[in-house]
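Hey L., structure's done. Input below.
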Amino acid sequence: MPPKKVATSKTSSKPTSSKGTTAKSPEKKADSQKRWPLVIDLQGNVSTFFKYRDANVLQAELPGDLSVDKLRVALIGALRFGKPLVLDMGSRDMGEVEKLNDVETNLLDSLLDKTLLEDERYLTLVQPEDEKEYHNSAYYATERFSLVVVTTNPSPNTHIASRMTCFQVE
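Output:
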């Protein structure tokens, strides 16, 4: 599936769709709304935007940012406070997103299909040494949580990209 292109202009702060966009059938639209966004950011501005927002941003190009414990803590923090978890892959291989599976078996799949958010399944990520508020689902704002993957690779050709809604920012 080719990425949707989003053009930006210096006179407007809102991105606009490129010409030639066609309306989708209701079934396809509903399917794409279930998917998390994959942003193909050729200039690297989207990552900077998220750094100044209330988001948990992990950068693949920084040593240790995709370590098991850092991924786990960033994920449960984003789930608890209803924030986006942004995985900034930079120019790295999109396959590194699969490091989420080192945190818990099939974690990437359960994030992409959103089953992690059902029936308080996310509580399996909480460790005994985490603060007590993390152990109680009443403290979580999962309805506002989102997963965003950002890459500067113009053609992320992986099975991960096929399971996300792709946007290209120029």
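Residues 68-81 form the longest helix (14 residues). The chain has one domain: 43-169.

-- N.
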